[in-house]
Amino acid sequence: MAMKCDKIPKWFVLPLFAGLLCMVSCGRDRSSALVRGVEALDDGSTERAVELFQAATRAQPDDPVVHMYLGVAYRKMARLEDAAGMFKKAADLSDIDARPLEFHAATLIELKKWDETRDVLLKARELSPGSARILTSLALVETRSGNAKKGERYLLDALRQDSKYPPALYNLAVVYRDENKDKSREYFSRYVKVAGNDPHVKTAQEQLWVDPASDLVKEAKKYMARQDSDSALYTLKKAIRQYPDSPNALWELAVIYDRYARNNEEAIRIYQEFIKRFPEDERVAEAGARLRQLVPSKEPGKRLSFRKSVVRDRDAALSAYLRGVGKREGGDYVAAIAHFTAAIEHDGMFANAFFQLGLSYRDRGESELARQAFLYALGVEPTMGGARYELAMIHIERKEKNSAIMQLTVLLQSRPNHAEANYLLGCMYEEGGRNPLSVRKYFERYLALAPDGSSADEIKEWLASNR
Predict the structure, then answer these.
(1) Band (296; pLDDT cuts 50, 70, 90)
(2) Is 454 buried (19+), middle (13-18) or exposed (0-12) by CB count in 10 A?
(3) pTM surpassing 0.70?
(4) Other Cβ atoms closer than 10 A to 412
(5) Coil vs helix vs strand at 177
(6) CATH number of 17-177
(7) Residue 135 · residue 161 · CB < 8 Å
(8) Among 16, 36, 202, 206, which is least packed, fewest CB within 10 Å?
(9) Does 122 have pLDDT greater than 60?
């Protein structure tokens, strides 16, 4: 299956965190709090692990390992700033080991603090000059900072240190993908041979796959460049008949019906067929978002619509988005809606703009338009917890209990530590007289996550009365 032709696969470096557990058993004895913290972390009890690691740092403030473990626990809780602080402390305490610096850099990469990351990695490189992993991380930083050629040099240097280092091979294939397809395929091929079961293997194999319909798809695009949509449609339908397993031919057919022929009925049908036949293709999210625009709303007269921008302009989208945030914070929801709409029209895959648009309509009391905006956001980014939660709240307000339960259940699959979602789901089950064990599970989870939360006393009373 081919990836979308204008998307580049994400970079990656080998995870640092998997190998940390051995640091407790290796070398000096560690405090019992540290050992119990590692056990708690391994069992998934992250909050308890944080408490134990904090105790260990107080008991052994000069031990870099205890600070590193606390950093890992913070990172698992998505407390990235706190995690970065702990890794920096560990690095300050260890001037011979590059690993604390690498942990610090890995967290700064998640925070997208590229200049600070570069400084940390250069220090790590001084301690471990032959590390292909550090060189690959430096390549990522330079590329993300706009220094593509410097990033390329770091990757080549990484392969001089280790010619079979999978992340460097993969990322060089990505670098060369647009400018030198033969070289890109060479590096993807080398990567696949040494990557084992790495999750990026599938993406690399997709890059090596050659679409047998590619010549016909190119021919159709030439027709479209001459505004000959009839010939383009004929050519694409021919491609699909000859090569029914080509996702690219089907995708381009949907796009032509959608954007050029203006045949919404056919566009809807083909987008739906695309999603059904190629569910793992990364264009599925875009197809879903477009379907939500094309399928009429259940409430006539209340339907979101956006002008389609000819060119995707992320800078203009971000500027409009930030203006919208300012207006919404000031309570000017009408102006906020106008700015968020402009952001979406500049970049139709701007999930946060859809989300903020939904919040603005919600604040104005227009729940149907808010619902549509949240659905758009989820079409682009299905794991967006805020949009999923707001959608559940709309269903609750409308007394659509089953729909609310479905949205909350999906939300907890990606964000199990969402306290309010656990509380609301418990309430939904309790009101429906459903399995009291499920109610208890969600209420107890809420208490574990928010022991001082606004609903804690209410839940304690219910638990005491339903033993």
Answers:
(1) low
(2) exposed
(3) no
(4) 18
(5) coil
(6) 1.25.40.10
(7) yes
(8) 202
(9) yes
